[in-house]
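INTERNAL TRANSFER SHEET
From: sequence group
To: structure group
Subject: Host specificity protein

Please process the attached sequence and return the structure record in the designated field. Keep the field labels unchanged so the import script can parse them.
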Amino acid sequence: MKQNIVKTRLKNNQPVLGVLANSTDPTVAELCGFSGLDFYMIDGEHSPVTTVQVQEIVRACEVSGITPLARVRSNDPKLILQYLDAGVMGIMMPGVSTVSEAEALVRAVKYPPYGTRGFGFVRACDYLQGTMSQGEYVTFANEQTLVLPQIESKEAVENLDDLLAVEGIDGFVIGPRDLAMSMGYYDGPGHDEVKRTIAGVVEKIKQAGLVVGTVATSGDQAKALIDRGVLFCLNTFSGLLKSAASDFMKGRG
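Return from structure group:
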């Protein structure tokens, strides 16, 4: 297993910027890596990506020096295992609202004694052909993997104090659009009540000493979020492409 540079930066209170992408093409991940982004989040929720394709995308990330992460579609330990065994170095789990769901996520991501992840002769451990023994690898993997539940519902906000106390979680990523929907605002998160709720969530996560993450649609927005203590900023690949294309098309006058 490679060192998780993103987790190292976050531990050092340094911001990381990356993309959430629903492409099944490894070339997209490779391009994002060569562009200098910190992480590539495979979207296994809103995409047709298969676990076979995950492995090829992870290889492209490794070639181009970008940390491979993934949003997995469900809190299924066997599915999470397949992503991790392919070499994904952190899991962002959508729809986590209760302590039991958060604890289940930690158990799925971590090997014993912190979790129940099963061990196999897979590429994540160099098929046990590398320099680490099994014991060394298990310890290293538990240190390197990121666990990032998403806060996307009113229930999650109501349970936030208890969620913050779950051992093994590195931080929380706020999903503003789904949170707004859960609050009854179906047209987006631009409402004052949603903004106040998100601000409160950000402060609570920071006070707990955990990583705060959310969406940033531009460099200026990412800078503003980082100034507020949000260290994990993600755009979508399609969003980046749209903004770059719009800027390029200004040349037409």
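Handover comment: Residues 157 and 244 are 34 Å apart (CA to CA). Strands lie at 16-21, 39-43, 67-71, 90-93, 146-151, 171-174, 211-215, 232-236.
Transfer complete.
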